[in-house]
Amino acid sequence: MKSKILTATLSLTIGLSGFTYTTASAETLKDIQQKQAENHIEKSKKNKQVKEVQGEQDQLLKELDKLEASLKKTTGDIQTKKNEIAETKANIEQLQNEIAVLEKRIEERDALLKNRVRNMYENGGAVKYLDVLLGSQGFGDFLDRMISLNIIAEQDKTILEEHKRDKEDVEKKKQQVESQLASLNSKLSDLNSLNSQLKDNKAKKNKIMKSLRSEEQHLHDDIGKLVEKDALLADQEKAIKAEIARAKKEAAERARREAAEKAAAAKRAAQQKEAAERAAREKAKQPSRHSSPAPAPAPAPAPEPSYEAPSAARSFIFPSAGYVTSQLGSRWNKFHAGIDIAKAGYVPIHASASGTVARSYTSSTYGNVVFLSHYIDGQLYTTVYAHMRDRAVSTGQTVSQGQTLGHMGSTGHSTGQHLHFELHKGPWNVNKTNAVNPLPYIQ
User: From the CA atom positions of the chain, what is the Rg in Å?
Assistant: First the structure.
């Protein structure tokens, strides 16, 4: 009868324990699966944004190629115009030499004409011509004098016409050269302005391209973080299942141990009682010859060992030696989700409680980090050990309380050797909403 009661008690204990673990684990795993679904949606969104940004970059690259081609053409046109200007300046120099010759000829004619006019004024001008004709010795002499005077007149006329033509030619050449040079300078100015505008547009588009590439890099970083979160969630899911199985097995073993201890205690009590009763019966059968002291009372049965389930507040230990230099709370306008323990030297880091390694890897922020999953009294806890110098455990490994996980270091986002220790009541998440102050649990 007693054996049946003990068996029933053991079965009930194990059954209730399994119910607790199953219910709690289902809620925890459902929460992790929900986080994974949210991450998947976020990753899809980020990947879509990456494609959009890459599309914008492709379009911008085409525009930059066109700008580069325009700049190349404009640079060529500018060089052509510069060559034309150099050639025009050479022509101008040649024309200036020609103009100098013309101007010298004009100057000489001016002197000749001025001298002729002065002579005409001093000698009476046309009257002297008449005197020359009238002073002829005969008709033949008259004709000779007339022809000579006509020749002189024609020469004067030719000089005047050449003088006028040379002056007009000088002015025309000056205007032509100046107009050509002004036109070339104007075109060169326009080309320089266009070149400057194209360079400005190219600089602006390069700036946009740099911004797009930076945005793409940020998106890839975000996707990388989401992938890392997914991996951590998947590892946590495996670790939680393994930890629940370990905790259930441990609970069942504990329950069997309790039942066995209770059965042994009951058996000892029954044996003691039976021995006492037998001694009393034997004594009653013996004849009483003389008075004797009353028999000593039978020894009281040993008290049954009572089992007290481990409390979370007593199930964690300090993870390392050192001083707490920073506690949970706001720090540097950010939420500091744990405590910092600092100590110089080669300081070992220990598992704060028995559990399963959810993840052991190198993070960009945590540095060398180990995540442990613990199941205590049907409650999931997660501890985080960050900035370690090295790691001595691997993902999926079962560890015991006090086991060495690695050594204190300053990897990741760290300004000096210390252990950043976090305790989460539930699974770890990126927003660290489950973080609790570790001190009440480990003191």
Answer: 56
For residues 396-407, one letter each, b for 16 or more C-beta atoms within 10 angstroms of the residue's C-beta and e for the rest, the string is ebebeeebebbb
Following CA atoms 360, 365, 368, 372 in sequence, which dihedral angle do they give, to the nearest 10 degrees? -40
Do the beta carbons of residue 352 and residue 336 sit within 8 Å?
Answer: no
The number of residues making up the chain comes to 443
Note the pTM of the prediction, 2 decimals. 0.52
Q: What is the pLDDT of residues 169-183, one digit of tens each?
A: 777 877 877 887 888
324 and 341 Cβ atoms separated by less than 8 Å: yes
- Strand ranges (E), 318-354: 323-326, 329-331, 334-336, 339-342, 348-350
Residue type, 149: L
CB 389, CB 368: distance < 8 Å: yes
The token pair that represents 357 in the structure block: 């390694």
Q: For 108-143, write each residue's pLDDT tens digit.
A: 767 766 676 566 555 554 445 556 556 666 666 666
**What is the 3 state secondary structure string of 257-317?**
HHHHHHHHHHHHHHHHHHHHHHHHHHHHHCCCCCCCCCCCCCCCCCCCCCCCCCCHHHCCC
126-134 and 139-285 are packed helices; what angle lies between their axes, rounded to 10 degrees?
150
